[in-house]
Structures are given as structure tokens and as C-alpha cells.
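Field reference: "sequence" (input) and "structure" (output). Example, H-type lectin domain-containing protein:
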Amino acid sequence: MANLATPRTWVVGETVSAAMMNAEIRDQMNVLIGRETKTGHITVSFTGVDSYTAPAVTFSGAAFSTTPIVTVTIPTTSGATSRWQARGANPTTTGFTPFFQSGAAGATATWSNVTCGWTAIVS
């Protein structure tokens, strides 16, 4: 995956054509648009634990070209989800394992049908 190019520095007195501007904008946008991204959500339930490994998530559609970065989000920070952290563990080109952990060791919680979102992206 290509990185964004260093933006062109225009020089005083230089004549800038529409073609030059279009090429600059097009090249930068093609890099941004070309990122491989997948999103989804899972429903999480557990009882009386301070960490939880959810069932593995398999990405729909084609596999990523390389291992993506995966983030998992908890939609609320009140009640049972307070002080909990989430991450996409062991990502591969075809999926990952959602992992949840209390921010306070030994502080157990019970979740019932908490919908959490995830995003996977190749940067």
C-alpha cells in the first residue's frame, strides 16, 4: 500500500495549471481511497469475569492483502462496561479474536447483549 506523497510546494511566480492541481489531488485521493477497510459488530454477553475472549470473527468477502490493524470499540462507558478495554487480538488476513479486559484486575462484571463495533484496516 502506497503512502501519501509529500505535498508539492508551489514556488512564487510558478504558473499552476489545472492539470497540475488535478494530478496532485488525484494522486493523494487515490492513496486514501485505496485503503482496504472492513467494519462490523458483535454482540457480547458474559457473567462474572474480569476478562473475556469472544468467538473469533471471520471477515466477510475477500481476505486482506496483508494483516490489518483491528480496533474493537465498546459503545458505552457506564454501568457494566465501565473501565473495560477491548482489542482485536491475533489479527490475520481473514479474521481476529475480540478480547475484553477489565481495567481493574479482579473487578468482575456481567454483560448482557452489549453490541461492540470493530474496524479492520490495512494502513
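The two ends are 7 Å apart (CA to CA).
The helical segments are 18-33.
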